[in-house]
Amino acid sequence: MKKVLPVFFCLCLFLCACGSSEQTVEPLAAAFSCEGDITLGELSLSVSLVKNAQQNYSVKLLEPKEVAGFEFVFKGDAVSLKFLGLEIGLPEGIAPSSSAVSSLIWVLEQLSGNEQLIGTLVGDAVQVNGTGAMGSYRASFVTKPKKMITIEIPESEFKAVIHSFSN
User: What is this structure's pTM?
Assistant: First the structure.
């Protein structure tokens, strides 16, 4: 009996360790804001993003200094550009869907909704993977407190590192 007990104990630990690391994460809130750094190939941007309750996005470019202050506003399919108090509607197709800002918004939309997101525990974070019109994406969330930390679209060399995220 003394020899069986340690074997039984080790077997129980092994089976518990082999359990699923599948985790659920609440989808993004209807309204939120975040700041972060985006890279798309060789392009690097720092942005401040706000999504309001009407599902509209405002993305203000913070860096590099050559584009600081430009703000893209997405209202449904309409996109406008603001700068120094002036706003101009952009013709359809002028902001390509593969742009850094459009890529960020596309992934955020995938992570929004009413259904819980299912991911895998990787270190301190839950990693959520998905596929959509722009390809596959990967987003990592810190579980407590909930805070998004990275977003990646490997096919387009897109990566966003989120510095702050709040509802």
Answer: 0.77
